[in-house]
Fold this sequence. Notes:
19 helices, alpha+beta, globular, about 30% helix, binds zinc ion, nine-stranded mixed sheet
Amino acid sequence: MKTKRLTPRLALIAALFVYGVSIASAQITSIRMSVDASEAPRNILHSKLTIPVRPGPLTLFYPKWIPGEHTPTGPINDLVGFKLSANGKPIAWRRDDVEMFAFHCEIPQGVSELEVSFDDASQPETTASAKLARIKWNRLVVYPQGMNSDAVRVRASLTLPAGWKFASALPVLSENKDGLQFKEVSLTELVDSPAIIGENFRKFALTSTGTAHEIDATADTPAALEMKPETLTGLKNLVQEAYALFGARHYRSYRFLLTLSNHGGSEGLEHHESSEDGVGEKAFTDELELLDFADLMGHEYVHSWNGKYRRPAGLATPDFEQPMKGELLWVYEGLTEYLGRVLPARSGLWSAEDFRETLAAVAAEFEMQSGREWRPLVDTAVAVQWTYSSPRAWMNYRRRVDYYDEGSLIWLEADVLIRQRSGGKLSLDDFCRRFHGGQDTPPAVKPYTFDDVVNTLNEVTPYDWRGFLTERIYQVAPHAPLAGITNGGWKLVYTEKPNTQIRIGDHARKSIDLSYSIGAMLKEDGSVIDVNPNLAAAKAGLAPGMKIILVNGRAWSTDVLHEAIKAAKDSTSPIELVVENGSFTEMYKLNYHGGERYPHLERDPTRPDMIGDVIKARRGTATR
Ligand SMILES: [Zn+2]
């Protein structure tokens, strides 16, 4: 996917697509779609489609490659009750032997419209709870195979459970007590414009003039929708900070489609004019969940620019069938991860300390990751079809979707480098303005290549950016890219004080992360989630899947293990662990005497605090 290209500017203009205008009208087909979500709390949605057809063979395709998921994750197993008919008579279908998202049929003479009906039987606790649901149109549609999704027009309607409300970026034609009729849009726009529905609904306006921005939130209980005033202020700031950063917007309006439920599934999926943000019921109130919520809001919002508007050429596919290539996900996700944390810090949703704690956690994770000795970062992106779903066991050795967080460290380093080389006059913000800004536009896709990224960096600050990125991303790199932290005026240190970002992870996973002391992550019940092969727990013999039942002769609890680690610091005796491995038990002796260790950043007074500069608020001061 790393191709030689024309000058970036010409290449970009040639490849600009706006919703639905890239296709000649003769190729267009128009589908009517009627979705009945009245049984959403039972995790079943009913879809009826009317598709114009001609007599002869026809293949219908169920969306397979889902934008933003970068992988063939269309939930084909959830498509049930699939039936075809025309003029009141059933039509037989046969699934393709190899492409299992394709269904072949033969349209009889005299038939001009095909009726398709099926149900979307979603897995419990993934898209719906008893009180809310996310409506993802890609789960509810099939279309003639081979058609560009811009050329498939869809007129959708939606029936809701009695008393439920809805929100979506999809333009509404009419609304009555039974449901909604939407304006006809391309299949591309439809899939990019999901809806949330629910019994308890609340809207928070984030702007009062100009382009509309809002949070549409639905929760399992009305109480979960009580947002603190300072959170709302921070989210309003987030919108202004993003505009100050990018200098332009590429949407007509923007909605955060937020679901708060412990049973409705977690979600974070970007779209041009909205994002699906699925969090826990206590996201507005619990201290750690609120910090994580701000991270999610920042990340998915940045994606409207970095991911939806500017998209790696390998991910800018014409339909939901062509495979996506993930090589440049260190830009798509890595830069988003970076900016998605810079913006909450600039907005006041995070403190400077919260931002630094996250950097420390990420820096430590990658510096202590044994898999980096064999696997270059880019391979975690190239292998994206498997890295999202890769097992948690042996993850430290395997690596997973590291283009997110390790990518963010590389973008921090680039930011600090631009600041240093320009004497503080320029920063990565200038790259973003060139790469993602320009004029305000409706949703559009401007694909890019590796060369386009290098060339734009060089336009901001001449440097060997090709070498910089190649070394850090394409080559095996035994050490994590920490120069953004050290050149930014801070040092990675370890102390006994727990790290905030690690506490967030432990809270969400119900785990205790001791990766930087004994070198293991454990579940609260003592089960081993993962070990670092280079550290004490693995060297003693522990492995993922085992379960600690005794610590120095005492019954397992997280407190007992914490106390044993503290006590071992002043002792030469090993920590004795009795561990279950299947139906057998064995004693392991842990030779670890370093005490509790958690990563933090400590100020280096010999250098200017550039990380402080990175997170300074810009709203109101930025000029175009
Ligand atoms: Zn993302």
